[in-house]
Each structure stands twice: as structure tokens, then as C-alpha cells.
Amino acid sequence: MGSEFFTFVKSGGGALIFKKGAKTPAEMASKIADAEKGGDAGDGSASGGQLQASSQGNDEKSAKDMPKTSDSEEVFTWTDINYSVPYDGGERQLLNNVQGYAKPGVMVALMGASGAGKTTLLNTLSQRQRMGTVSGNMLVDGRPLGPEFQRTTGFVEQMDLHDMTATVREAIEFSAVLRQDRDVPKEEKVAYVDEIIELLELREIQHVLIMSLGVEQRKRITIAVELAAKPSLLFLDEPTSGLDSQSAYSVVRFIQKLARAGHGIICTIHQPSSLLIQQFDMILALNPGGNTFYFGHVGDNGSEVNKYFSERGVSCPPQKNIAEFILETAAKGGKRQDGKRLNWNEEWKHSQENKTLLAEIDHLNQERSKIPTKQVFTKHEYASPIYLQCTMLTRRMFTQHWRDPSYYYGKIFVAIIVGIFNGFTFWKLGNTVADMQNRMFTSFLIVLIPPTVVNAVVPKFYQNMALWEARENPSRIYGWFAFCTASVVTEIPISILSSVLYWLLWYYPTGLPTDSSTAGYVFWMTMLFFLFQASWGQWICAFAPSFTVISNVLPFFFVMFSLFNGVVRPYAQLSVFWRYWMYYVNPSTYWIGGVIAATLSGTSVQCGPGEAAVFDPPPGQTCGQYAAAFVREAGQGYLMNPDGISQCGYCPYRDGTEYMKSLNVVPGDKWRYLPIFLAFCVSNWALVYFFVYAVRVRRWGFGLGYVFGPLGMVGGALESGIKKMIGWGRVGSG
Ligand SMILES: Nc1ncnc2c1ncn2[C@@H]1O[C@H](COP(=O)(O)OP(=O)(O)OP(=O)(O)O)[C@@H](O)[C@H]1O
Ligand SMILES: [Mg+2]
Hints:
The protein is of the alpha/beta class. Helix 16 (406-425) runs parallel beside helix 20, helix 18 packs across helix 21 and helix 25 packs antiparallel against helix 28 (669-697).
């Protein structure tokens, strides 16, 4: 039934997937069909190409009546930026006295060889470095950066990280509503989203799920999501990498539009064509080690750049791409007229141009700092209040689960399958001693569920957490509290639903007591169990430093959970080491104990054939006369035929209560264990919040590095040893 109701939408390129209920514009549908006919619809870029073609036609028009999407005139300057990270026991300098500025309407290209430190510089300028030491001055209008800097600057990362199940419009709206100032009315924010959609020409695909889009379209969405925050300053890390020259050109034209619309732009660009580089106003060129060797205007056909270099004896041959020229020159070095080798880093440091730049930065800062700040209200790190963050994100996560139904489906499926098999394996249990054992086992079998469910929760949570850590938190869209709340809340309905299914399919077929007190109790416990296991997976995920650690830790938890609860090994037989702590800290002890107490307490035991001890009384005595004293002394069990005169049967248990004694469970545990198990659920939720805050926000390690570091080394050594043995090492490293 489930597989009838759920569609298993695949991600990746190919046909565009519209959200359910969205009107597919007729012309869009025909466009898609055309593109597919064209035969190159392979990765969805065909439709991108179509849109692109239309976009170039629009360029001239839209450049003229370009809406001002940023009215900020703030100038961002940076001087003496140094950044170093601990490396191999020492320090490694990745940025060396970098300076420059970004102004509204100006496009700066950040260039340099691979590994020169471009991404590092962008991360540093946008305040996203998590480790190492940063020094230098970064000023907005001559003033230090405020707490709102991160959310008011856009960072278009190289990777297009999105919630893939959101539609284009949803993704942009999410960012607009949460990142724009809290006093802007929602209607205004949504209206602004329309503007962005228009600007980036996303109207036709606004209701398409992001996972079905091609590379170029995704890049435009990444840009759109950042623009939705109305950033005055936009950082872009290689927005053109992975694109063909056509798409790259179209992306750069878009970026240029943004500059004209009033944004300051700093953009790293990899191997740009001459056409591309001329769209930029300025170039900041870096050499490895983060050394600047040029910052200045591009000029017509790169004339300004050429001027700087030819003054020093190296000029760009006509027809040569100025971008390539810069990179090659820097890499090769060169000779001055007097024969001395040129060091371009030193050359720049002592150049007149550099001095002019510093003077200009000083001037900019002085001029701008005279202008009084317009914002007098309190500045927030996150634009929106926590309540709004929580509700928006919760809604998005519900939608995510709904559109990627394999997750919910999997949980329901496990509940149904384990429920049915458990229920029908222990079909209509009777009252023999063996049945008592079966009653215990059927309750115990719920431990089969967590390994599957937790293994589904973990990657889902991890994926959402990765998105939050990599992009959405650095952009200050929502904070840790909203993330935890949404993750916890979206698990609740599905846990309740699966618990109802499991309980119905398991409880009634087994013939456990159906009086409302017992059945109701077991139902509540089952529901708690399903809630418990969802948040269990989440906090393990939140605290573990990597996915490998999670997969190493989980089996340990599962084994402890199933073994030390007094069923597989009864309490009395547990070794002393486990008996006094593991048994008591194990949540399953309380779940199973409580359910056994509820279901066995009132049940009578009738020994089946072979279960009673059979003996003959001495002649002249009944079974009762002969053995009653013994039974009293034993304190449990009963004589099956006290009036008989032969074949007396002694059944070792009178009722379930006596049977439970061997399991260290008494009837009173029913109501004692429920609140304890509830406390475990609550503490699981609390741990989700705690670990996300402690490990992900505060970056506390809890010494796990010491535990897993050596383990990782052992693993790594083993892996490389095995690879060497089977001859992978040579192939792999070659
Ligand atoms: N956390 C770190 N620890 C040690 N070295 C680092 C760290 N981060 C970056 N590096 C090194 O710093 C240098 C600059 O890296 P960065 O990613 O900024 O280069 P890039 O210019 O963006 O290169 P690409 O064009 O390949 O993206 C590289 O040599 C990289 O190995
Ligand atoms: Mg990079």
C-alpha cells in the first residue's frame, strides 16, 4: 500500500520535477520537450541552455531598467590581513598582508593559481574561518564589523548546497524571510523574492525541485538565495567552475547585473576567457602563500594591468588573454632590464600603485566614517526571531520528508514488518510456562527496530546538519536552537504513526491482555519507544566528529541496548561487572521491565505437559497432604492436583508475577518504569540540543580526538596495508 502512495522521486538531472500541485506553464512543458528532442538533455543543461539563450537577449533591456536591489553605499576595506593555521607542529601562513576594498557597483576579480589562497581570503573576509588566527583590519565605512555582518554579506560558495527537495521559489523565500531585517514586513520580503526571480530569470522554473536542476541553474539559485538577503556585499567563490563557456559567460553577465544593481562584488574566477575578465572592474591577484602581486583596475582590454607589468619590463603580447598573462607572468617570474630576477610580490609591495591603494583605503575610511550610521536599532546576529526560525525550518523539514518519502516510508515499513512478524510468530499465546517466556520474548523483540530506524535517522540528520553547518549557519539564516527544534519536531508525528501501526499489528495477534489498563499502558510505552529511538539517533549524530565515528559507535550502543536488560541473560546471571551499572543505565531495561510487569502480572500459569514436576505421594496421602508444606516453603508454584493420590504435579509458577521474579521484575515496576523511560526520552531530546550547541557551535571536543584519533590512525594503517597487499596503492596514488 505504501509503495502505491509514495513516489520515489530520484534526484539528479534529467526531466524537471515540479512540486505537486504547481501549474506547469504550458510553454515550459513544450520547452522541455524541445530540449529533449534536441537530444542533449542529458544533465538538464539543455533547458539551462534554452533559458540562457533567452537571457542574453534580455541583457541589454534589463541592464537599463535594472531595479536597485541594494541601496547600501557601504564600503568594505581590508588591510594587513594575515591568516595562519597550525600545521605539522608549526604555523603555516596562508595570507600575507593582503589589502584592498570593495565598493557598491564595483566588481573585483580575485585571481591566482590553484592553492594561492583565494578561497582562504574569501572565507577570511566573510568571517567564516573556524580555525587558525586572523589578524588585520576589516572595516565597513571605517568602523569595525558588527554582529550582523555575516548575514548582511552574501557568500556564494563553490558548492551549490541546498535543501534539494525545496523548490526554487521556496529556497529563495526561505532565505529572504529569515535573513532580511525583522522589521521588514513579510509581504515586502516576498515581493522582493519576485524581483530576484525576475532578475535571475528563474520564473519558469520557480516551482521546480532543486534536485532536478542542472549545474548552471543551481548556480543561479545559489546566487539568488544569497541575494534574497539583500546583501550589500557579495562574495562568490568560482561561480563559473564546472560550467561550459556559454553558461560561464551568462553567469558572469548576471553578476555584472548585480554590480549595476548596487552590490559590491568580490569573485574568484578560474581560467577566465578574455571576454569574461573584461566584465570585471578590478583584479586582485594572489600568489601562493596569499601574497598580493596586483590590485587595481583592469582597464580597456586590460590596459591598466598591462601598464603595470610593462613598466617593469614584461608586457602582454597583443591578442593574449590578460588573465592568462597575469597568471603565467606571476608563475614564471621574469628579469628586469638590469638583469635582476623579478619577485612580483616584492615588486608590488614597493610599487607606487600599492602606496596609492593604501592612501585610497585611508581616504575611503575617513570619508565614509563621517557619515552617521543610519541603523540605530539593536543589531541582531540572526535577522529573525527564534520563533520564526523554528516554524519556517520545521515547515521546510516536513516538506523535505514528504517529498523524499523513502524516509518516512522506511520507518513505517519497519514498524509494519516487525509488527506483523512479531505478532504472528507469537500468535495467541497461552498460559503455559513456555508461553510466559514467549510473552517476555515478544515484548523484547521491539529491540529489532532501532538498528534500522536509527540507521535511517542518522544520515538524514547528518545531511541536514551538514547543510546547516556549511552554509545556512555561516549565513546566519537560522541558529542551533531552530535546527534542533525542527529536527526533533519533524520526527514526532511519524514516530507516533509507526508506533500505532506496530502496536496494533503486534499486540492484538499475540493475545496479550486486552483490558484497557494493560493495553493502554503498552501503547503509551510503545509510543515512547518510537520517540526515544528517533532522538537517540540524532544526539549520537550531533556529538560524533565524523560519520565513521558514528558507524563505529552505533553497534556498541545497539548491542548494549539489547543484551543487558535481563532478557537474553537474566538479571541474576549477569556478570557482576554489568549487573550493577549497565543493567541500570540501559533504557531497554525499563521498557521491557515495565511492559513485562504490565502484561504478566495478572496472568495465571497452567503448566503444560512436561513442565510440571511429577511425583507419587506415599500411600494413604493425597498430593496436598504430602507436598503442601514443601510448596509453602518454596514460596512459589502450586500443586496441580492437590486431591489426587498419584501422579502429583508441581507447577513451578502460580502466575506471571511469580514468573517475573526470576527476571527481577515486580508488578509495581509497571508504574515505576514508565516515568523512568519517559525521562530517557526527554534526556535524549535534551542531548540533541546539548550536543548540537556544544560540539557544533562551541566546538567542544570532549576529548574524542584522543579516542578516535589513534583509532583512525590504526584504521588508516590497516587500510593502506590492505591496499598495498592487493596492489591498489600504486593505482590509487598514480
Ligand atoms: N585549514 C588548512 N590547513 C592547512 N592548509 C590549508 C588549510 N586551508 C587551506 N590550506 C592550504 O592553503 C592553500 C590555499 O588554499 P585555498 O583553498 O585558499 O586555495 P585556492 O586559491 O582557493 O585554490 P583553488 O583554485 O584550488 O580553489 C592551499 O595550499 C591549501 O592546501
Ligand atoms: Mg578555492
